[in-house]
Amino acid sequence: MMRFSSEKELAKVVIAWLQDQHWDVYQEVQVFGGGSVADIVAVQNKLIWVIECKLSLGFVVLDQALAWTSYANYVSVATQYTRNRGELAHRICELFNIGHIEVHGDRAHGYELSIAVRERIRPGLRRRVIPDRILPCLTEAHKTFAEAGNANGRHWSPFKQTCRGVQQIVGSKPGISIKELIGLVNHHYSSSSTARSCLLKWIEAGKLEGVRMERNGRLIKLYPAEAVQ
Question: Phi-psi category of 17—alpha, beta or left, where left has phi over 0 and alpha has psi -120 to 50?
Answer without folding.
Answer: alpha
